[in-house]
Amino acid sequence: MSSCQGELAKKKFAVQAVDQDGKVLMDKTIETLQNGFFELWLPRNRKIDLTIRGFDRTARGMIATYDDSPTCITTLQLK
User: Fold this and answer.
1) Cα–Cα distance, 62 to 50 (Å, whole number)
2) Which end of the chain, N or C, is less packed with Cβ atoms under 10 Å?
């Protein structure tokens, strides 16, 4: 049995998700879970510009929600 533990458990982040058409899908504060990760439920079949802000740093990346898209993304880093 294995488990993952993120570095920032129970911390708040500003999260914004904007799809390829410029529609804001999410713009709110989210708190990470006890394991340091958070979950997002986003519409299928979209390319989404995801911006995460916290601790005076920003992470930004493009994600996708197609059938063959990854469902666990751990590569965005606050810089």
Assistant:
1) 6
2) N
